[in-house]
Design goal:
2 copies of one chain form a homodimer. Chain A folds into 2 domains: about 60 residues, Arc Repressor Mutant, subunit A; about 160 residues, Chorismate lyase-like (Chorismate lyase, 3-Layer(aba) Sandwich). Helices cover about 25% and strands about 35% of the residues of chain A. The first copy, chain A, contains 7 helices and 11 strands. In chain A, strand 2 and strand 3 form a beta hairpin. The N terminus of chain A is likely disordered. At the A-B interface, strand 8, strand 9 and strand 11 of A face strand 8, strand 9 and strand 11 of B. Strand 11 of chain A pairs antiparallel with strand 8 of chain B, so a sheet runs across the interface. The structure holds a DNA duplex.
Chain lengths: ~240, ~240
DNA sequence: CAGTGGTCTAGACCACGTG
DNA sequence: ACGTGGTCTAGACCACTGC
């Protein structure tokens, strides 16, 4: 069973990088399912023909990227794409008291169309590429407070248009399309609510809103989602941290 | 010279953590100055009475925290607190074309006072603690586009009030007060410009602005700065990333 | 108790930048 | 050629979990 991790002569990649890629592939392909315990470090090392320390380095990187979860004394597990997991990570809106706001969502108008110039640039698509677009309204209790316009490459998310998108997208991405969101980038400005957005959010036109344009990147750093949101934050704030 | 890194019996800290703290202290105390090359991994290992791998782990952590910079084949260096270093890291405003905006600053009204309730909570101060407050206007070319109200604990930054604060603060913190900013947390909302802020920014009252409240944390995770800023972003945006 | 991740060692070799 | 950081190994022991 022991497979030597041989590399081509000119290959300069460190060994742990190869092991890392192999582990990513196993998660991505579904060979290791979410929540499942993966082999221990010595088993991985033996399989890949490297030492435990090298296997450990690969696993550590995956853990740092929130793809694996280590539990001392128990084992290492594939992260479970629960709504909480992704919500907690990427929806960083908090109340004044510091509690995170967990919104509910309502989706509407799911349609396929041709990518605009901006969408092509953001999602790195070729001319005339097809995209799935839909809109959402996020609720805080009974009050709408965020509008979202989401755009996805149709090629990557084939068949998504015929379903009604669920409350949380990223767990669906992982479960049904093997696309795991690793990081997001957001561009934030302040803007006055236009008539349409104001109506949706049930506020006066001209109310200052946060406009947040998000691009989500998959494990392989491909951009796979463009999302433009307008936030009406009453006794709440968006949170950002820089290390 | 070889000092064995002995620990108390009940001490459960890993060895590399002790080495890490020792290295931090050398930088903080000025024993290793900014820009200086530090001993190589084997020398550190010998000094601290650990193996090279353990010393390396401590150095790696410092490097990950942007306190040290490694250069293969050359050595490891204490980070230089140049304006660029801190500006690039913590002032994340960009033009539409993706270029970072590097502002100039004008400071005014540097005064000492007693911390308000909000300031005490943000900076973890005791009742009646003294703080240094001043205001800044950041310019993009000839146009003002950010107002800042900065609040610092007077105890930590003794004597700062008599100087005129420079364009960039954080390099001053490191050079003159041994306070190295490791991370910042920002709370972002949208708001309409009040009359006073509008006058400073030379815009119409009511213009939507980004309000950003920043708390900056030192290496030891003490909060050492509270800053409230209003951003008028024209063809520009604030950028946030979540891993 | 056995099995897991977490730490640590001593030594080896490689890749890179400088002189 | 030399010294540096970067990778890798084989083996050891510790700390934690669950049976």
């Amino acid at each position: 069973m022991a497979r030597k991790a041989t590399q081509g002569k000119g290959n300069k990649k460190p060994l742990y990088a190869s092991v890392y890629e192999e582990l990513v592939e196993r998660v991505r392909s579904g060979q290791w399912m979410p929540g499942q315990r993966i082999p221990n470090e010595f088993q991985i090392a033996a399989e890949q023909g490297v030492s435990q320390g090298t296997a450990r380095k690969a696993v550590s990187r995956l853990a740092a990227e929130n793809l694996l979860v280590r539990v001392q004394g128990l084992g290492t597990f594939v992260v479970e794409p629960t709504p909480e997991h992704f919500q907690f990570r990427f929806f960083s809106v908090f109340q004044a008291n510091g509690k995170r706001i967990i919104p509910r969502s309502r989706s509407t108008k799911c349609k396929v169309g041709t990518a605009s110039r901006i969408e092509r640039m953001a999602l790195d698509l070729r001319r005339n590429a097809r995209v799935v677009r839909f809109q959402r309204l996020r609720m805080r209790g009974r009050r709408p407070f965020v509008t979202e316009s989401i755009c996805l490459p149709a090629e990557t998310f084939e068949g998504l248009v015929v379903r009604s998108p669920p409350d949380t997208l990223y767990d669906l991405f992982q479960r049904d399309y093997g696309v795991l969101i690793k990081r997001i980038e957001e561009r934030i400005t302040a803007t006055a609510a236009d008539a349409k957005t104001a109506a949706k959010l049930k506020i006066a036109p001209g109310t200052p809103l946060l406009r947040i344009q998000r691009i989500a990147f998959a494990l392989d750093d491909r951009p796979v989602e463009l999302r433009v949101s307008f936030y009406h934050l009453h006794r709440a704030h968006f949170r950002a941290a820089t290390e």
